[in-house]
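[Automated response] Your request has been received and processed.

Submitted sequence:
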Amino acid sequence: MGAPEECRVNMNERKSNSHRQKGAEMKPEVFLPDDYRPAEDEPFMNERQLEYFRRKLTVWKEELLEQSAETLEGLQDSARNVPDIADRASEETDRALELRTRDRQRKLVAKIDSALRRIESGEYGYCEMTGEPISLKRLDARPIATMTLEAQERHERRERVHRDD
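Generated structure:
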């Protein structure tokens, strides 16, 4: 009967140790001026660039989650019985469009989370196909990009060829 007590103590000890380790791993915050933009003349994916993209992705994710919450509220509010057939059809069409948009947003949030994980692992900004750096302009326009423009075009051409078969 003493073993379960001992296990609980060990589990609590492990939890507090892992918590301490996480705290020790926390990096100091990177100073980033409000007008900062990544530039080609600085080292690629330096701390400031990574922090710039981390913040950009985080703000984008928060906006999408906020919009999703508003969409859900709107769908709950519109879930009423409309007697007119034309009005009901119109409302159903609107609801279907909202749900499709919400699904797209959900997929986008997953891609943002993936990009944030790549920032943490040091893989962000490099093409997953070639390993080459993705241009800063491309990343600024589409921070979830995982391929250089050339690799993306090759990938899309290959997809098109296979789809046409």
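Summary generated for your ticket: The chain has a mean pLDDT of 82. The helical segments are 2-25, 47-77, 85-121, 136-141, 149-164.
If you did not submit this request, please reply to this message.
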